[in-house]
Every structure is written in structure tokens, then in C-alpha cells.
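Hey,

Quick one before I head out. I ran the complex with zinc ion overnight. Inputs first:
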Amino acid sequence: MFLINCPYCGERDQSEFSCGGEAHIVRPKQPTELSDDEWAEYLFMRKNIKGVQFERWNHAHGCRKWFNMVRDTSNDKIHAVYKMGEKPPVE
Amino acid sequence: MTKYRVNKTKHVDQTKTVSFDFDGKSYHGFEGDTLASALLSNGVHLVGRSFKYHRPRGIMSCGSEEPNAICQINEDTDLTEPNVRATEIELYEGLKASSQNCWPSVNFDIGGINNFISPFIPAGFYYKTFMWPKSFWKKIYEPLIRWSAGLGKSPTKPDPELYDHKHVHCDVLIIGGGISGIIASKIAAKNNFKTILIEDKNILGGSTIFQKNENYKINDKYSGEWIYEEIAELKKLDNLTIKTRTSLAAYHSYNYLLAKENISDHLPLDKRNGGIRQRLWKIRADKVIVATGAIERPLVFNNNDRPGIMLSNSVKKYLDFYGVSCGFNNVIFTNNDSAYETAVSLKEKGISVVIIDIRKKSNSKIVKNAEQLGVKIYWNSTVVNTFGLRKINSIEIMNLSEDGSNVVGDKNRINCDCLALSGGWTPMVHMHTQSGGKLDFREIDQTFIPNEINKNHINVGSCNGDFELEKIINNTNKKVKNFLKVSETEFDNTSVLNSKELDKRNIWLLPNYISEGKCKSFIDFQNDSTAKDIKLALREGFKSIEHVKRYTTTGMATDQGKLSNMHALGIVADTAGVKMGTLGTTTFRPPFTPLTFGSIVGRSVGNFFDITRKTSIHEWHIQNDAKFENVGQWKRPWYYPINEEGLHDAVQRESKAARDSAGILDASTLGKIDIQGTDASEFLNRVYTNAWSKLGIGKCRYGLMLNEDGMVYDDGVTTRLGENHYLMTTTTGGAANVLSKLEDYLQTEWPELDVYLTSVTDHYSTASICGPNSKKILTKIFPNKDFSDDAFPHMSYQNAKIDEINCRIMRISFTGELSYEINIESKFGKSLWEKCIEAGKEFKITPYGTETMHLLRAEKGFIIVGQDTDGTMTPIDLQMDWIVSKKKYDFIGKRSLYRSDTIREDRKQLVGLLTDDPNEILEEGAQIVSDIRKKPVEMIGHVTSSYFSPNLNKSIALAVVKSGKKLKGQKLIVPMENKNINVTVSESVFLDKENKRINA
Ligand SMILES: [Zn+2]
């Protein structure tokens, strides 16, 4: 059970949050101009890394804000949390 | 006092007799006993039969590692509990316990016949034998195996007791109240850390508390006396919470731990007073100090499982803590020094003991002391066999060869009534590994010890591999001070007298003159797996320890292999010729000891299982005999039976009334989202499939929302309340998800939009009045309002007042009838509703529930998201092309609507179905086929909604069918269990295709 440092509220129990999958996948600005393959790449393809992964999290039972998190999936170590729109930290 | 109670101790009050039953026979013990110590004090060793061979088994240990003494307690009461370890349950007046896994009795057991055919039950026997023929499994093999196996009985009635959860935070959590846990707690609490100490036994002090021996002294006191004083001082500290009878169940990441506190399990049943039985502590600790100790290892040799064969340290605890001698003619079989403590204790009480030591010699002080006391020691020897049917009566020993790989010389028979085993110690690293910690292998005594990398927890004492007293004290002191960064000096100069050394001769499987195939050398006592089984698994090609474990079931019983895992690993390593440290261990999973379901669930039972949401009109529904339906967490009126009406009759009546005169529905549960901001119109354009920019203020529009994959996600009517202000409605079940999906897009994809979302579902109550007389009823309620079609057209909204209370009236319809929805602040919901009923009386206004609502909308072919759709339906599949804007450049899901898969013409599409027999009602979910003769029969769709329509006087249904759009007018078949129903594909709109009734 993680202790997650919400960028707006501070440290809270994992049970207050929900995970929204891989981060930094930007919705295409002009979807109509994409081929089926390109659209499918955006729509379906997600990484499932053993190791350091960038994830979207939502403080669902708190401030309801979305933010990003860098987590090592092999040991659940949370390396960083940062607000939407902010640049991911360089390792 | 029984003859086995040889010693008076301060832990058992021999003035307070406690009577109890075991296997139907009455016995006496004392306050302070466990069931196991009380049984042993009565000379009872035989307490069960083994799982596979039904061999007689006795009490082996004194703690949670116990594999044999597993009981059913208080059978035939609501409080009965299986799989209770006799070594852990505290004795109380009237306790009734019985052995598990033996029928008809522990002394005569039919399954024991397996023992004689055991050559035929090797590892994997069940997998190999009971596979064929397949038809035998259900009727013969499974009942047979279950009957002969049986691990206790579940209670048949609901648990009458209360359970509780408690969330706590602390600076330092210490797990284990033995000597190192006590030192750690004292250092932490003295230095102003908010500290919690948990201990699974009912008193602190671990195995030091009963140590009264010249060989072990701290500051010139017996170690047992020293710790007694330490505990007394500890209890005075302010920052410390001590929780005894509390066992750690799980250690999760980020120092989140679960511990189960037993509050009333040690009390007689009539003294429990309906209080809380167990409490699950959910602890978030800044720092964790693990001091869980170590478990003594047995030794693996032929017939090492008879009643009377026990662990050496347990024999000592029964003697020095409970005052019970497990035998009067003891043999101790060891490979290390610690068994000599037991020998000295026995000898000092005048009880006969000899030692078989596989080592060639030892020079430690404790060994010298035992020799001085006249204990006979057989060096370089091993036990090769044991005898005695229901209890051990003698053993055979032989000398070991120089390298320990074989036995030499003559057999020597020794009589005994108790054989105490000491194979060294296994640190309890469960907590460390559960938390994600890794292990290192220590060659000298073949143990896995913690490799600490997590900076927020440490291991101290014997769970860290420190087994000698001065190491335990000094290392604990040093480590805890470093960990907490304090300069506490109390334990810095503790003088310690220690008499044993870490000198050990480790032989995982002891050699024998009897061939390996004929030896029964048990590793896992509870699951009956032997050294032979492990070797067989290796011969059959299993290499990974995880596979060997599963194939042989070693370590998979309720004790989770606390006594067996290391020997299994050791024998695998020896046989495969690899170093044990390279094998790794099997995974230690929570819970450490079994948890009750009650403690996991806590108070979340019955009415507290989930939140119940009720509308403000709920009381009225109850008074009017509504039957309720659960929709998400909401209780919604399902139908309102009159007199003895059933569902069908009530719904037929309600549906007819709604179309013939007037009906009223509580629509308060629909999700409502208030949308404001200068970009609100643009936002709606992006989230709905249709266009919103041109919707006038005061107008309503139906919208369909897709997922990015093009599949229908939700629908509802949204009203434009002002230039930059909308009120969106969602489905009842989808409300929360829609809001978070919209928030997600706003926050992450379109942060530039000026839009604010607020859930107002609970803020407003909604009465929906429909039917040809609804306009007249509204006119009565709002006499000053003009309800003419020109002044108040369909799909528009107006503000109004009732008794000075503001409300909103939307003229929208989900039934196809002329219909109005009145929204009012929730606290006025019930009085609004009552006003509507009063005004509608002369028109026989009929309250209707969800079932009638579903029927009425089905007559009109309106979909219900989640009933007629299932996350695989596009708007095109639903024949709702009209709502998908061709002009809009983009909206959520648009691009997916022309992927190669979504434009397939043979997708399942929504159609109507009419049964050839108009009185035949299809079952929702029924499969649809076109050709019943061609095998395999192809399922081309299924029924999603089906009703008997009283307004059309025939059965109607909605269904999704492959290429349904092209099949209009075609005959299909709905095959049911006893008949095939013939149906014809129709339009999905059955009533009023011209939409005349909306303006009736
Ligand atoms: Zn937050």
C-alpha cells in the first residue's frame, strides 16, 4: 500500500488514489488525419515496463486532481510526482 | 496436579484450575496454560492424524509453527472455528476442542490404511492417479479425497461476533516483544518516538522470560529476571503502546502493516458479552523494527514424526514456562549447542535426559555444564529409527562416518518417552521479505538472513541471525541507535554471560542403513511430504524450488512450511549438487498466520457492507408499498404493487396508466453535472457526438457520449441554463464515472478550456410526470405558467416557483409521452412529489417504478446504456447515425467510428424482435440463431430487452444481431431449453413512430 505524495495535498494513503495508466500519451490534435494504424497506436498500445515507468494518477478520493508519477514497478519505489503539464524529471 | 506438572512457574497459576474437553474427554489445566501445555500436562501427546497417510501425530512445538496440533474448537456452536493451533490458543473454562483430520477417532483411524500403502502414494500421486477416467472425478475421486483429507469444518451459521478495524500512525513500530524487541522499544520510547510494540503472545519477554540458568546472565542477574525488570520499566513509558495477543499479518510497501489483535478469544464463551472479538490494526509506521525471532528446525531422519517427538526449545518452554515435563525419559537429538539448554533445565529438575549429538565434539560452556550435571552424550551419532505406535517408546542410533554421509558400526537401542529435536535455527525473515527485502545466505549455519536496503526498516535479534545473547543485546542496541539516530546509553555497557556458540554440523537428510526408498523421513509434517518425495520430484525433472514445492505440496499447508521450507531447500541443493544459497527461497506471502474472515471484513457486514443511497422521496415510496431495486448504490422504486399484485401485473397497470392518463417517476437518481465556464459549449461539442454550439438558452438536447474507441459510454439530456451554464444529466449508474472521465479530459488534454464541473446529483430531486394529462397537472401546480406548446415547447426548460421555492421545469421525455421533469432542491423533494400526487389525483396519476420506465422506453425503442449496450456498440450499431455529427471536426471517439473494425457491416446491430406468438415473452440474454440444424449452431446475437407491452397488447423485444440492419422482416430463432421460439426482425421503434404523442 503506497504512500503517495499528491502534489496538491501531500502524503496520502494509496486507497485515496486511482491509477490512470501510462503517462505522456498525448491525444492527437488531428485524429481525422491519422491512418488506422496510427490511431490504433494511440488508442491501444501501452508499455508495461518492469522498472521505471511514467504513470498517470488521480487523487480520486481527495482533491480529484490528475498528476504524474514515476514509479519503479519492480520494487514500487516512487521516484517523483509532478503536476500535469510539468516536464518529467530526468533520471 | 498431574504427574507431568513438575515445576511451579510464575506464568501458570496452579491455584486456578480450568476444565476443558478434548475429543470428548474432560481434563484440567491451569490459568496461563495453552491447550497444548494443558494436554501435555495430562500426558496427551497424540492430537491428530497426518493429512495423507493418517499417521498418528503429536504436539511438536509451542507456537505458530505447529504443524500437527490443529484443532476444531467449540464444535456445534456458532463460534466454532477450524484450524486452530493448540499451541496458540489460551486455555479457558469450558473450552471444547477436537482433533481434525481423523475419523472415527484419533486412536483408531481408518485412513491410517494409507500408511501401509504409502509406497504407492509418492509425490504427485494425486495428480497422476486421479486423472482418469474424467467422469470419475466429480462422483468418486473428489468426494473420496475430500472425505479422507478434511481440514476442519466451517461454521454453518453467520458469525455472531463483532470485528473491528483501527487505523493508526506511529513513528516506530516494533514487531515482537522478545529481548531485542524490548530493548528496541525502550530506546525508541525513551527518546520521544511515538512507539507501538506488538507481540503475539499474551506476555512479553519471548524465550528469555523463562530463562533461569547460571549459563545466561545479564548484569549478573539471570536473564529471565533481568528482562522481567526491563518489562516493568517499559510499561511505565509514556510514548509506548504495548499490544499483546496481536500478531502481525502482513507487511506491505511503504511501511503499511496489518496486525490482528485477539481481544476475547482467550475468554470463556459466557464471558465475552458480545464485545469485539478481534481488531485488525492498519498501521502506517515511519520506521519499523522487526524482532520476530527464530524458529527451531527439526531434524530429518527415518520415522521422525511420532507423537512424543518435539522441538527441543519447545520442550524447554513447556518445562520452564508452563511447568510441564513432556517426558520422564528424554532423549535430545541435536546438531548444535542450544539443545544443551534444554538438557540442563531437565537435569536440574531431576528429569532423565541423554543427548545424541551429530557433532564430533563441542567445547562451549553449556556443553561442559551438561556433562558436569552427568548428562550422557553420544557424539558423532544419529538416530536411524524410532518406535512406538501412538507415542514414541524407543529409538535406534548409530555412529556417523567421518564425512557424515553414512552410518557405521552397530545399532544401539535407547528407550525414551520424548525425543527433542534441535536442528539449529531459522530466522523468521517473513516480515522482511514481505516488505520487499532480499535475503543473504550464511554458510556457517545454513541460514537466510536479511539483507537490508530499505532505509525505513531494520531487523534485530535472532530474526537477523543473531543467536547468542551478547550478540543479540549488543547488535540490537547498536542498530536501533543508528536507525533512530539517538545517543541512548542505557544498554551500552550491559555485561552478558553467554555459554553457547554458533557451532553446528549441518546434515539436511541424516544417513541411514535402511535404503532411502524405505525411509519415511518427513519434511512437511502437515502435508506429509518426505525427503523421498523431494528427490522424486527432482528425478522427474522439476528444478525450480517453486515447482518442487507445488509438486510435492511441501510448505503448502496451513503452517506455510515454517518448519519444512529450509530442509526442502537443503535437500534439493544437496541432491542437485548446488549451493543452497544459489537456489533462493520460496516466496513468503501474507498472512504470516491465518486471518479470520471476520477480521478482514471488520464492520463492513449487513447494512454496513455498502453505502445505501436514498432519494428525498424514499419515505413516500415505502409508505406506498414500493418494491425497490438496487441501481448502483441507489434504492430505486421498482414497482408499486396494489394489494396482491405481482411484478407483471403491477407493471402492466402502471404502463397503461402512464400512456392513458398520467404517471409519475422519481428520477432524482439520474446523475447531474453542473457545467460552467466560457468554454462550456466547446467542451460539450468535444464530449458529445452531436453539435452543441447552436443550442439556445433555455433549450434541452439529448446527447450521446462515446469512449475514445467509439463505443457508447453514456447518454442523457443536457439543458442550457445560460450563456455559459449547462446542466448535464447522466445515467444513474454512470454518474461518477462520467464526471471523472470529463475531469480527466479537462485536466489533462484540454487544460486551456475554461470549464468547471460540479456534481449536483444529490442537490436536486426530480419528479417526472408523463402522459396525456400531464400538462393539466402541471397547470394545476403552476397556475401562473403558460404550458401551451408555443410558450413551452418540447425540449425546453423554464424556471418556476412553488410556494416561493425555486424549481426548474424541463419538458423532456424518455417515454415518448408528453412529459415534464420538475427539479427542486432535495430538501423539498418529498413535498413537491406529494403536491404532484395531490394535483394528479383527479387524473388517477399513477406512480411507476424502473420496470415500467424500462418498458415504456422500449416501446419507443429508446436504448438504455448498459442494458442494450455493453461497451462494444457504436452509435452506428445502435442505428443512431442521426446523432453523430458529420460536420464536427472532432469529438471523443470520432476517429474510431471509421476504423476497419467499426465499419464492418456484419457487426452486431440493434433491432427489434417480434415473437410469432404475441403472447410469448423472450428472456433477456437469450441467444439468437438463424439456422438451428447446422452444427455447431452459430449464435448471431442476443436479446437485450424484452417485455409484454400492454399498450400494443403484444410481446416486444430489443436485440443485437449480426448484420441486423439487413435482416428486417426475416425469421430468426431463439432456442430455449425446452423449445425454439420463432421471431421476426422488426424496427426497433414499436409505438408512435411519428412522435405524435409528445405533443398530444
Ligand atoms: Zn490531492
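Chain B has six domains: 13-125, 162-294+427-497, 298-423, 514-609, 666-855, 904-999.

Talk tomorrow,
K.
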